[in-house]
Structures are given as structure tokens and as C-alpha cells.
Design a protein that fits this description.
The chain is of the alpha+beta class. The protein contains twelve helices and six strands. The radius of gyration is 22 Å and the shape is elongated.
Length: 293
Amino acid sequence: MLSAFDWLRRSRTGSELLATLTCLEEDPGFPAGGDEIGPPHSALDGPCKRCWIYPRQAGGQHCGRCAAILARSRALAPASRHALVIWGFVNRLPAPLREGESARMEHALGAYAPDGNRFLVVTPQREIKPWIQGLIFRHGPDLKGNLQIFPTLQSFRRAPGMGDLLCYAVHHEAHLPMDQMRVRFYSAPLQVLTPHERDRRKLLTFEVSEFLGLLDAAEVFRTVLRPEEQKELFELLTLDNAREAPFYWGRFVGRLERRAKDMLTGWNIRAWPRNRVQLLYKLVYYVDLPQLH
């Protein structure tokens, strides 16, 4: 019969994944079931149309477990739209997961650990920075491995689904040595399928301190520049006509506040390669404005 991780791999969207995690946390016996198998597929009957194993409920198309997941997924859809999936492969589990108390993990919408070296966490996208900071603060350099981070899928029309992306993350987990903590950041779900191009362009794998530094830079960037200034800056930094760039750059900088000018000058952002600029603009969506006290 299906294990807890088997149920997670049957998730087609982010909301189904989050609903499955919720069911597993609230009912530890959720994966267990009887030995009854649904009838063979035919024109008149068949097994559950989601798991294709268990018998359907009377008058329905799904078994009891799939029906429970789908019912919860509708309520969790808004949260899953702005969530990130973290697949961790580490030398030891973080404390709450090691103690079997995944519900206590801060900044997490759901969590599960299939064994002593792997874990799955779903977190709001703008809480990824405090989540990583909390992980490093508690465990420091003793925690080694890699974290693969990617957004959830919002719809399912055909393969791959959310469960397929988990399987690909498991496939990629051992590609890096376990000598320190690293982050592999995918800005779009389907990038998990073919990570090699992003890795070649140095847009995928970072040391954890480097990735936190990038999130800090994105936070400062979002704070100092207004949205319309961010948009205009991106157009300037990706301008194809190099001869016109100095003229437009001078006009743009002349309209900025002093702290914005100092930030762009200090970063020497005009010398950045285009792929690094694009990464900065991706990360802006994953940080929040700092709280004023």
C-alpha cells in the first residue's frame, strides 16, 4: 500500500501537496489503509481516479483519502499560490523534524521527513529568508548538505505534476558534495526538470551565505528603489544599444535620491552580467520590505 511519501508524490498541484502535508500532520495514521483494492478500470467502474489504487467512495470518483486531500486543497489554494517548496538533503535533520514535531517548524506551512537525511518543507515565498536564517542559527556549520528551492505548480493539465518535481529533486540531490550547506534555487517550477543550463550560467547553485546575501541585496533594492524606478533600471541594464546607454543612464541617475545613487554606484551594477541582473529581479519577489520600529 502507499506510504506517506507515496501520497506526497501523487500531488498534482501545490495546493494538493500542502493538503497532503496537512493530512499527514493531523492524522499520523493517514497513509495506512486496508488491503482492499479498487475494481479494474472499465466503462462502468474502476478504482479511484486520482490514486488509481483504492476503491471509490459510494457515488463518487475518489477514495476517502483522495477526497479528503482534494477537499482541503481548495481551501489551501490561496496559500499555495505564494509558496515555495524546499527539498533538503542533509547530514542530519533539523531539530523539529528530528523530534517528530514538524508542526513546530517556524515559517513553515507544512513539513515532512521521509527518513533521517531528507525533508520536505513548504513555506510562504517571502519567508524563505527568515526560514533559512533560523536553520543556520540553530545548527550552524554542523549542518551540511543542500536545499533545493522551487515554486509550487498552480495547475495540472498534463505531466509533470508537483509529485514529479519532487521525484526530480530527489534525483538531483546527490549531485553536490556534503562538505557544506548549499542552496539550489529554481525561479520557476519546471526548471527542476533541466537544471544544467541554469547551473552553467551560475544561476542555480550558491553557498548558503551567498544566497542569503543575494536576498539581503534584493531586500535593499526593493526598499530603496520605487517600482517604476526598478522597471526603468531593468530596461537600461538590458539595453542592446551600448552607445545609447550612457545618455539614458545619466538621465536616470539624475532623478534618483542620494541613497539610490550610492547603492547603484557601490554595487557597480552597470558592470553586472545580464544573468545576475535577472536573478536580482527574480529574488525581489521573495523578500519583504523591512519592518520599521
